UniProtKB/TrEMBL annotation:
Protein location: Membrane
Entry-linked Pfam families: cNMP_binding (PF00027), Ion_trans (PF00520)
Keyword annotations of the record: Ion channel, Ion transport, Ligand-gated ion channel, Membrane, Olfaction, Sensory transduction, Transmembrane, Transmembrane helix, Transport
Species name: Sinocyclocheilus grahami
Domain Cyclic nucleotide-binding as annotated: residue spans: 372-495
GO molecular function terms attached to this record: cGMP binding; intracellularly cAMP-activated cation channel activity; intracellularly cGMP-activated cation channel activity; protein-containing complex binding
Transmembrane segments: 190-214, 268-291
Principal cellular location given in the protein's record: membrane
GO biological process: sensory perception of smell
Membrane topology (UniProt): Multi-pass membrane protein
Name used for this protein in its record: Cyclic nucleotide gated channel subunit alpha 2a
GO cellular component, one term: plasma membrane
Length: 549
């Protein structure tokens, strides 16, 4: 039997054996993959210009070159170890081999015309581009990778794929491609996991090829450790040979073991090296996957910590169950609708210019819907959009009450609000997305009878998302724009006068209507009384006339 498991008859012992191998405590070692990446970065002296987007990167020549590099890394090693690949479909392998040469030459030509940044400016001069590329370490590696080493086939023989190992000199470009692509993708954690899996598969593939080559040099079937005799039909096919070696390599590098014990010294050395190398790979997998999972769940863990702290506080302070349920539902709404992220905390590392551009792109149209801010200076609008703060209100929450001191104005982003009476039930008006209120209360308008007090009760019907601008933030922003401040106060005064005029007009209209109704009612009653009196007197007169007759 090519593989053997000790204590196969006792599954409990075998299970403990597997667990013991997986639970061995090792200090976290430096990842082999990270070491290779650092080596690749040291060989690159010039920084190229990055495309504008992740899709542009994949639409460029790198999309065609990257898979070819991966295939060359696998195929060259595989051809050197498995003889069947050299004898079967040999013409196909030659075509693929020289096709790779063509792609590498095209890549070199593209590199000669690839711009780079110098003191923050994009260099496009072809002479400088060539000089920069020729003096870079990457050019030397690229030149070695396209050397016509296959000319040695004439003297040595055609079945020597080891001569084409110079193609692996571009291995560092693969790391460069992955690093740049990782910064472009919208799913970096998934990309890192796939990247790590690819590295592990390539290493397992290489190790399987080396194992097959050692077995070939020692003799197939010469002992229990090497690959079984290929004269056996069961192990004589190329597919079985590769799958067997891949399985052996996977068991060894994942520190599972359970493979036949070595016999010769060469086998012992290779087995020891594989086990030590497997420890590094296992540490790499555990460390990288653990870090990726932590990064993926970092936002959720932080949000859950806030909820737990609030729950503990409400329990300690013996808050009512009804209020506690409202708080929990509010948190659930934030997380379900992706509103738990603090925009200020996310954008704090950006320079002020980029932060302002993002804020303008997100909030400027919303701010322009406010009547008093229409036709304002662009600089003032930029200052104001940076000071907008999102707020979320639960169903039944009062945004403001009549008579309260107004310190903020609100712009409705999503949701429905209602202007209600003092009883909180009767609705006078309905506010939807795009509406705003409270803008007059944050302006110090001279001569205003109501001052900065609220004039209505506004209540949230469901969950509502609002943008809030405080009075202090507005005053701080208009300090540098005195003309804009006067214009805002003037617009606010006109709006207030118009509102007062409408109220007075409505009041006068109501008064006139009441007077008209009173006059109409009075006239109807007077007319009815007059007619009754006339008829009564006429009747009395008729009676008197009858008596005299």
């Amino acid at each position: 039997k090519p593989f053997y498991l000790p204590n196969r008859e006792d599954p409990h012992i075998r299970k403990e054996h597997y667990i013991s191998k997986f639970t061995i405590s090792f200090p976290r070692l430096v990842s082999m993959v990270v070491t290779l990446r650092e080596w690749a970065h040291k060989s690159l002296q010039e920084e190229e210009e990055r495309p504008d987007s992740f899709l542009e990167r994949f639409r460029g020549p790198e999309l065609q070159i990257a898979p070819s590099r991966i295939s060359i890394i696998d195929s060259e090693c595989c051809m050197a170890c498995f003889d069947d690949l050299q004898t079967r479909n040999f013409i196909l392998w030659l075509v693929l081999d020289y096709l790779s040469d063509v792609i590498y030459i095209l890549d070199t030509c593209v590199r000669l015309r690839t711009g780079f940044l110098e003191q923050g400016l994009l260099v496009k001069d072809l002479t400088k581009l060539r000089e920069s590329y020729f003096h870079a370490m990457q050019f030397k590696l690229d030149l070695l990778s396209i050397l016509p080493t296959d000319l040695a086939y004439i003297a040595i023989g055609i079945h020597v794929p080891e001569l084409r190992f110079n193609l692996l000199m571009r291995f560092s470009r693969l790391f460069e491609f992955f690093d740049r692509s990782e910064t472009r993708t919208s799913y970096p954690n998934i990309f890192r996991i796939c990247n790590l899996v690819l590295y592990i598969l390539v290493i397992i593939h290489w190790n399987a090829c080396i194992y097959f080559a050692i077995s070939k040099s020692l003799g197939f079937g010469s002992d229990q450790w090497v690959y079984p005799n290929i004269s056996d039909p069961e192990f004589g096919t190329l597919t079985r040979g590769y799958v067997y070696c891949l399985y052996w390599s996977t068991l060894t590098l994942t520190t599972i073991g359970e493979v036949p014990a070595p016999v010769h010294d060469e086998e012992y050395f290779f087995a020891v090296f594989d086990f030590l190398f497997g420890v590094l790979i296992f540490a790499t997998i555990v460390g990288n996957v653990g870090a990726m999972i932590s990064n993926m769940n970092a936002t959720r863990a932080e949000f859950q910590a806030q909820i737990d702290a609030i729950k503990h506080y409400m329990k300690f302070r013996k808050v009512s169950k009804e209020l506690e349920a409202r708080v929990i539902k509010w948190f659930d709404y934030l997380w379900t609708n992706k509103k738990a992220i603090d925009a200020q905390d996310v954008l704090k590392n950006l320079p002020n210019k980029l932060r302002a551009e993002i804020a303008i792109n997100v909030h400027l149209d919303t701010l322009k819907k406010v009547r008093i801010f229409q036709d304002c200076e662009a600089g003032l609008l930029v200052e104001l959009v940076l000071k907008l703060r999102p707020q979320v209100f639960s169903p039944g929450d009062y945004i403001c009450r009549k008579g309260d001191i107004g310190k903020e104005m609100y712009i409705i982003k999503e949701g429905h609000l209602a202007v209600v009476a003092d009883d909180g039930v009767t609705q006078f008006a309905h506010l939807t997305a795009g509406s705003c209120f409270g803008e007059l209360s944050i302006l110090n308008i001279k001569g205003s009878k109501i001052g900065n007090r609220r004039t209505a009760n506004i209540r949230s019907i469901g969950y509502s998302d609002l943008f809030c601008l405080s009075k202090d933030d507005l005053m701080e922003a208009v300090m540098e724009y005195p003309d804009a401040k006067k214009a805002l106060e003037e617009r606010g005064r006109r709006t207030l006068d118009l509102s007062v005029f409408k109220k007075q007009t409505n009041k006068q209209t109501k008064t006139s209507r009441l007077l008209q109704m009173f006059y109409s009612t009075f006239m109807k009653r007077y007319q009815s009384s007059f007619i009754s009196t006339v008829m009564l007197r006429s009747h009395d007169l008729n009676l008197t006339v009858c008596r005299f007759m």
